[in-house]
Amino acid sequence: MTNSNNITQLSLDYLESMKFEDIPPKVLDRCKQLFLDYIGVTLGGVYLAESSEPIMNGIGKLVSGAVGKSQVIGFPYKYPAHYASLANATLAHSMDFDDTHQESIIHPGTPIFSSNLALAQEYEKSGMDFLLASIIGYDITLKIGRTHGPLIHRKGFHATATTNIFGCTAAGGKLLNLSTDVIQNAMGLNVSQIAGSQQFLENGSWNKRFHTGLTPHNSILSLVMAQSGYLGATEPIEGKFGYFNLYADNEISDFSIFETYGTEFEVMNTAVKPYPCCRFSHATIDAVLDITQSNKIKHNEILNIDISMGKTGYDMVGYSPNFPTNTVEAQFSAYFAAAVAAIKGEYLWDSYQLIGDKTLEEVMGKVNVTQEIFQHEMQSNISLTTQNGETYKHNVEYPKGEPENPVSWADTRNKFLGLAQPLLGEEKSEAIYEFVYNLESKQSMSEINSHLTP
Q: What pTM was estimated for this model as a whole?
């Protein structure tokens, strides 16, 4: 029986018992698809995000000439694992284009793949080792995440960082074949590393990208310290001053999701993003695109766009009708998202060039967002009224990319190639795709390195 007193131990038991042959083929396939998506958004972050040069300059100073075996994606650098994971995860999250998990409101792949790739290369691990550890990392992060649901976000934290530290550490420990005692000590240290504030919303800062990068970096620090015999706290998730009680104010009562370890794999519940903005705006984009394109409605024919969304989405993207002044503010504005979809008939990274555009601001002024109770956090209702009095309504229960409304391998490959080819060219991009598609046959995760640099 699962209760609040044995979550850490249940997670460790699951981790210890899981073997590669226990993983269904469809789960392996899905993990590879998510890994390809991760590499693509990391490469996109290298040359598209304004925060990438500062983060790389800063990490370069911290590295101080040290050389490691872990590849920084998109750069000709090999760093010690903790620095490579910091770089890769910050780059991967810098476009807000990485995978998401609806119930937990977490981007699971960026921290988990970043720490696992760096450790796999430092310790010469195979593709099978990497896949097993990554699937376990998703499971532990997202079982914890499904248990707390939106509570963490509503307290002002970013669960991609705060929850994911445990999954990253557990996955890294599995990858390195560490004993459960050592992994428990490392997870015990994690409870003193948990950070990730939503204060970045106030001025469109880059904090969110950075603490997503710090998550795998800090997980590797905790693993190294635990391997060295440093003692971590017991019950870091469920204890009196553990994660749930401190960060969710003891509001959690249902822990039954942990009973699904080994039978329900969370990579199957994870979504691939089709648009580079906060996931809570995706239902709005889907609906506006569908309404305007199906009915051939031009933006200057629109009278108003009314959007209703759940509390967490409203708090993230719906609360402020202010015109954005920078990319992050635009990424977290349903008003901006609706206006872009109506004007451009698409939503791309280039859409942020419309910040300050008078036409965009005119259409944004026609958008209204209200809060409603929905069964699913990502669900939205959209009503679009034209100047001639016609009203079109669209309820999006699951935005495109959710498991219930999935994107295919071909869609993910096209997204990856669109991000990778401008930096790497066609030959290297195709080589990465082939490597990932056949990942379980690879003897070393370092074999991909020659393809990852321009």
A: 0.96
